[in-house]
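Dear colleagues,

As part of the handover before I leave the project, I'm documenting each prediction I ran so the next person doesn't have to rerun anything. This entry is a single chain, and its sequence is reproduced below.
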Amino acid sequence: MSHHASGPNFGFPRGDARLDMTDLYAFPKPGDPDKSILVLNVHPSMAVNPPGPTIKEPFAPGALYELKVDTDGDAIADIAYSVRFGSSEDGKQTATLRRTQGERAAGVCDDGEVIVEEAPVSVGREALVTKAGDYHFFSGWRSDPFFFDATGLFNKMQFTGDDFFADKNVCSIVLDVPNSALGTTVVGLWARTLDRTGEGWIQADRGGRPLQAVFLPGEEREAYLNGEPADDDRFVGVFAHELEHSGGYTTEAAMRVARKLLPDILFFDPRRFPHNGRTLTDDVVDVFFSMLTNGKVTGDEVGPHGDLLDEFPYLGPPHD
């Protein structure tokens, strides 16, 4: 995750910014230990290669945005939350949220139990929140919570604290869910986007852990983005090679680190938070680049954004 350009050569998957995943977050709901907040961010407002603004429509109509939940540690989804979007003639979008449980959760989940139907998508500063039973749901443009000196990255990792994302937006899908709906106390989370074609559903992007999908798979990036966590062992050697090159690891040490990073799943246990999951203020860039470079680079001098909210959907309003 934290892609903001996850396709080959830092482009968008299938050439569509709306299918590009940027970040996945999971943390206990503030003030309510029996509920959790899941955030899937997609569609950055600014492209990197070539640079420039992306399409204004938040989500791809007909595409599928899925949050996968593994409850038994086999890297195969046992629960899935999926969202599909529709568009009207006046350009407004609506969202339908479904939940699928059991063996079918591992596949394409476009016909599960409807939790929220035709909820309005936010395109302005006001957060349009839909409540359905024990769930709260939001989708739409928000201020990007990711913070990183991207300019310094392209200047041979000479970081100066220039936060490229401070005034950028993303499209967010935010769920407020009961912990009981996640199946168990310890779960593995990842997300993916799927594009519907004449040949059926095609996975465009996927990920769970921050940053590694961009910097580690190398020439195997497209195969990695099209893959499944249960099959991620095949990328251990690819990850290890990149770690040797970037951090000067020995072959043995690189293999050891690579095995800790795969499968590409974000583990979340509300009882043991904050030692798992991911909040909107976690400095994942400093942790990742320290690992990638074997301690040679320990930070980019950038900190969390100050426009986060204390209430659902927690991400700040979008910038103009």
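The chain has six helices and 14 strands. The chain has a mean pLDDT of 93.

All the best with the project,
I.
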